[in-house]
Amino acid sequence: MRNFITIFVSSVAIVAAASTAVAGEKVLEFKLVTKPMDVKVIEAANVEGQSVVAGKFFGVAVFNDGRIGVKEFVHSGDMLKGSGSYYGYSTYTFEEGSITARYAGAVKDGKSHGEYTILSGTGAYANATGTGTIDSAPNPFKGVNLLNIKLDVKTPGS
């Protein structure tokens, strides 16, 4: 009986250690193509070149290994002659789960840089936290944005 208890306790410890090993950090890097779906641009009165942008966007994430994901997001920007600040809320959906994050950044001299704060996740990303970056990439396409995304995702153990 003593051996059974020892084996049982050891097994429980191994299972607990294995579930803790699931916790960790994963870096996701991919290209993102986004397109405005329902966007409103309002020009400010008496301020030349000043506008406020708000709307819904959709995007497709493409990893180097061919995996894909989608992004639905709301975005708001305050722009003066093409430069200014922006922020929004994104939900990325991948095969293994989803990640929801807030982002904020700025556009200057035609280049965009922003930072993500991961708020939550589902599936393999359940209860995720973390950070990330969003940077504009050279874009040969009209009517869409091309971005480089990096997400440092931290997931807790069960």
Q: How does this structure look, described?
A:
By secondary structure, this protein is mostly beta strands. It contains one helix and eight strands; from the N terminus they run αββββββββ. Strands 1-2-3-4-5-6-7-8 form an eight-stranded antiparallel barrel. Strand 5 and strand 6 (about 110-120) form a beta hairpin. The two termini are about 30 Å apart.
Keywords:
elongated, mainly beta, 158 residues, 8-stranded antiparallel β-barrel, disordered N terminus
Short synopsis of the structure:
With 158 residues, this protein is mainly beta. The chain contains one helix and eight strands.
Strand portion, in percent? over 45%
Computed over alpha carbons, the radius of gyration is: 21 Å
Secondary-structure element pattern, one letter each: HEEEEEEEE
Major sheet attributes: 8 strands, antiparallel, barrel
Which percent bin holds the helix content?
10-25%
Mean pLDDT: 87
Q: Report, as a whole number of angstroms, the end-to-end distance.
A: 30 Å
Number of strands: 8
> Which structural category do the helix and sheet elements fall into?
mainly beta
Question: Helices, strands, pairings?
Answer:
Elements: H1 2-22, E1 24-43, E2 50-62, E3 68-80, E4 83-94, E5 97-108, E6 111-121, E7 129-136, E8 145-155
Antiparallel strand pairs: 1-2, 1-8, 2-3, 3-4, 4-5, 5-6, 6-7, 7-8
